[in-house]
Structures are given as structure tokens and as C-alpha cells.
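## retry 2 of 3
previous attempt timed out at serialization; input unchanged, resubmitting
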Amino acid sequence: MTSDCLVLLAHGSKDPRWCVPFERIVDAVRGQSEKTEARLAYMEFVEPTLMDVARECVGRQILHLRILPLFLSIGAHLATDVPEQVNRVQEQFPQLEVEVLAPVGEDPRFTGLIQQIVIETLGR
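## retry succeeded, writing output
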């Protein structure tokens, strides 16, 4: 039984092509855990929003959200906008436990992969 939800939070864009890689990621990881459901949410321009995902989770009695920002680093969105969205979610759904994780860009494996791509591109 699913007991929590890992929300992959992306920025969002008015251009639908921008969403495709993020949709591929969430499709690839769905079903990898019996305890944790993976969902995609967007900060703006595209649905579902964080509030949409929170509402759906509460309706399904999933009361623990972990938010994994699909951002390279902490900037204005993660310092200000995401906490504001989380506060609105918690105001509307006080029964939810919400945890915001470090952005993927802070994982050394991610920066290492970017470095590897750059090095390989330099060699071409």
C-alpha cells in the first residue's frame, strides 16, 4: 500500500515540448516502490500543480509528501516560491506532512554527469 508520495517538482513552461523529458522521468520511475508513489508537479504554466497533487494525495489518504525539486541549484524559486507553495498546501491540508528535499543539481552524481558530458563534447 502506498504511504507517501515523492513529488518531482519542475518549473513548467508554456511550451509543451519542455515537459516531455520530465514526463519520461516520472513514467520511468513509477512502480519502482510499493510504499512511495512518484508524481510530477509544476510550479507554473502547466498542470498538475503542487496543490493539485496534494489534493489528490489527501483524497487517497496519502499524507506524506516529499518534494524533490528538479532544479540545478537553489535560487529564487527554491528560496521563496516553493516555500510559499508548500505553506499554501499545508494551510489547506494541515494533515499533510511535507518535506522539501535538496534539488537534484546539488547531488554530486548530477554535476559529475554534466561534467562528463562537457568533457566528451570538448573532445569532439
